[in-house]
Design brief:
This protein has 14 helices and no strands. It is globular and about 50 Å long. The longest helix is centred in the last third of the chain and has 32 residues. The protein has one domain: Na+/H+ antiporter like fold, CATH 1.20.1530. The mean pLDDT is 90. The two termini are 28 Å apart. With 308 residues, the chain is mainly alpha-helical.
């Protein structure tokens, strides 16, 4: 099996299984929110922590990588805001377009990037750590401004970021790696928890997918998909070249930026008065598109690195 197939086929099968299980009502409906909670607070933070704490290389020059990531996100966020009236019919719909343009699927990141680029688990965790607080703050701010159900309170935003388990796990993992603290048997236990997060997380992604209303929402779906899957990697590439990000980091970075949006975007849209139906449809379409787009992005990233 080729490297690309080894990354994409398991991803596709697990997402499809999650979709089928929920449509068939194989499990009681309360199971899925409970699984999401377990992933968010326990399983995925364990994966982030152990990936960073045990990373053996590939994290040099992380400052340049961070600037490239944030620069790409700033460009795409600006394009979305400038094209707001073209991309969406109203403010609530725009919040879904915005989230679809800048957020990323963490489970897909760990299922794809380290398989395509062996040894990149630490870099993947670092990319998640760099991106999560930025996109969370941006998404909450846009929802508060354009959805209008809840006024923006910066204290609330600060609490949501500072208490985010993924951010806390990232900081702890970086600290452990910096002091070279051995984890002993905890490394194996945390590794098992982390591996469990990938399977259960991808099942949850599939369970979230909704394809109803695609024909009626072509413009916002197409707009957010182009911004996320094409414009974001291109903008990041431009910054990465200017900052001279090393080739061994550039290719994983470009594939990371080509991932579909996050299922958590649907939860945030529902909680803050956004267009949750449109958000669910954007999530479904981007996930389906990404399964075909990621092999192309991988090939293009390889050519970019070879020519740099």
């Amino acid at each position: 099996m080729s490297t690309v197939a080894a990354a994409i086929v398991p991803l596709t099968l697990l997402i499809a299984l999650g979709f089928a299980l929920r449509r068939a009502e194989f499990l009681p409906e309360p199971f899925w929110p409970g699984l999401d909670r377990l992933n968010y607070w326990v399983l995925f933070p364990a994966l982030i922590f152990v990936s960073l704490a045990t990373a053996r290389g590939g994290l040099e020059g992380s400052g340049r990588v961070a600037l490239a990531v944030w620069g790409g996100l700033a460009v795409v966020a600006s394009l979305a805001l400038l094209g707001r009236r073209v991309l969406a019919a109203d403010g609530r719909a725009f919040t879904s377009v915005f989230q679809g343009s800048v957020r990323f699927n963490s489970f897909a990141a760990f299922a794809v990037v380290p398989v395509l680029f062996p040894g990149a688990a630490g870099l993947t965790a670092l990319l998640v750590a760099m991106t999560v607080p930025v996109v969370n703050v941006a998404s909450v701010t846009v929802l508060a401004r354009f959805a209008g159900r809840h006024p923006l309170r910066w204290s609330r935003v600060a609490r949501s970021v500072s208490g985010n388990p993924l951010i806390l796990a990232s900081l702890a993992g970086i600290a452990v790696r910096a002091v070279e603290l051995p984890l002993g048997p905890f490394e194996d236990a945390l590794g098992l928890l982390g591996q469990a997060s990938l399977g259960t997380g991808l099942l949850s992604v599939g369970a979230t997918l909704r394809f109803r209303g695609v024909a009626a929402q072509v413009r916002p779906i197409a707009g957010s998909s182009v911004l996320k899957l094409v414009a974001l990697p291109l903008a990041t590439w431009g910054f990465a070249l200017a900052l001279r990000v090393p080739p061994e980091q550039l290719a994983p970075l470009l594939v990371f930026q080509a991932l579909p949006t996050a299922s958590a975007a649907f939860v945030l849209a529902r909680a803050m008065g956004g267009d949750e139906r449109l958000m669910a449809t954007i999530l479904a379409v981007q996930t389906a598109l990404a399964l075909g787009w990621l092999p192309v992005a991988f090939a293009l990233a390889g050519r970019v690195v070879a020519g740099s």
